[in-house]
Amino acid sequence: MKKIVIAIDGYSACGKSSTAKGVASVLGYTYIDSGAMYRAVTLYFDRNHVSITNTQEVKKALENIDITFIVNDKTGLNETYLNGLNVEDEIRKMYISKQVSQVSMIKEVRVEMVSQQQKLGKKKGVVMDGRDIGTVVFPDAELKLFMDADIYVRAGRRQQELLDKGQMIGLEEIMENLKERDRIDTTRKESPLVKAEDATIVDTTFRTLEEQIEEVVNLALSKILDGDSTQLELE
Ligand code: CDP
Ligand code: CDP
After folding, report:
1. Does 212 map to a domain?
2. Which of 37, 43, 103, 218 has the fewest Cβ atoms within 10 Å of its own Cβ atom?
3. Which atom of ligand 2 sits closest to the CA of residue 129?
C-alpha cells in the first residue's frame, strides 16, 4: 500500500501528539514528536548553561547534541534520548516548557532540527507533529492537519497530564505558559506557526481523542487509496 507523510501542526496542548500516536499505531506508521527534539535541545542548553544570544556557543552546543528516538519495548512508543540518556520525562517538565520557545526561535537550532526531521521522514510512512511540519519540514506532505482547541480546555488537559505524572501545577500557570508559547511560536521570524494553505483544521475542543484519531485515520486512508483503484476495490 502507498505510504504517505502526515503532518500535524497547531497550538500547544490541543491533542497533536496523542492523535499522531494513535493514527501511527492504526496505520502501522512511525510517530515522530518534533517538539521533543526542541525540548531535548532546551534541556542540553539548560544543563550546560548555553547562552542563547551567543551564536558561537549555540553552534558548538548543537555539534555536541545527539537526539535519538528508541522504542520502549513495554509501551511500543518512541522515547527521546539525549546523548544516550533517556530524557522522555525530564523534557516534559515545566522548567523546560518555560524555556523551549525561546530556544526554538534560534535560526541555527531550527536549521539543524529541520534537517534531522527531514531525514527521519525520508522513507514516508510517518506521522510527525509540531509547528512547522506542513509548512517547512514536509511542504509536500500528502496530508496536513492544523489543530486547535479552546485555551481553557487545553490547559485543563495539560494539567491532568502533568498530575498523572505526579506534578501538581496550577491552571493559571499552565495557561500562561501555553499562551506565551503560542505567542512566541506564531510571531517568531524563523518558520512561525501558521496554518499551511492546504491543511485541514481539526478543532478538538468538543471531541474525544478516539473521535480525533478516527477522523484523521479516515482522512489518511482517503489519501492513501487516492487514485489506487485496486485498493479501493479490495476495501
Ligand atoms: O506538547 P506541547 O504542545 O506542549 O509542545 P511541543 O510540541 O512539545 O513543543 C514544544 C515547543 O517546541 C513549542 O512550543 C515550540 O516552541 C517548539 N517547536 C517548534 O518550534 N517547532 C516544532 N516543529 C515543534 C516544536
Ligand atoms: O501534542 P499537543 O501538545 O498538541 O497535545 P497532547 O499532548 O497530545 O494532548 C494533551 C492532552 O490532552 C493529552 O493528555 C491527551 O490525552 C488529552 N486529550 C486530547 O488530546 N484530545 C482530547 N479530545 C481529549 C484529551
Report:
1. no
2. 218
3. 1
Give yes or no for residue 58 having a pLDDT over 70.
Answer: yes
> Average pLDDT for residues 71-87, to the nearest whole number?
94
16 marked among binding-site residues? yes
Q: Supply the range of the domain harboring residue 23.
A: 5-202
Asked whether the predicted pLDDT for residue 12 surpasses 70, the reply is: yes
Phi, psi of 182 (to 5 degrees): -60, -40
Residues 6+ apart with CB under 8 A from 234: none
Number of structural domains the chain divides into: 1
In a domain, 213, yes or no: no
Q: Can you tell me the distance from the alpha carbon of 26 to that of 4, in angstroms, rounded to the nearest whole number? A: 14
Alpha helices by DSSP H, listed for the chain, are 16-27, 34-47, 55-63, 94-97, 100-104, 107-120, 151-164, 171-187, 209-224, 229-234
Whole-prediction pTM value?
Answer: 0.95
Mark residue 33 as left, alpha or beta (left: phi above 0; alpha: psi -120 to 50; beta: remaining). Answer: beta
> Distance between terminal CA atoms of the chain?
12
Q: What is the pLDDT of residue 83?
A: 98
Distance 153 CA to ligand 1 centre (A): 18
Tell me if 129 sits within 8 A of 8, measured CB to CB. yes
Residue from 226, 3, 200 nearest 235 by CA = 226
Q: What is the CATH number of the domain that holds 46?
A: 3.40.50.300
Residue 208 lies in a domain: no
Segment 39-67 shows an average pLDDT of 98
Mutation to probe ligand 2, out of 6, 8, 16, 18 (largest number of atoms < 8 A from CB) = 18
- The answer as to whether 220 is a domain residue is no
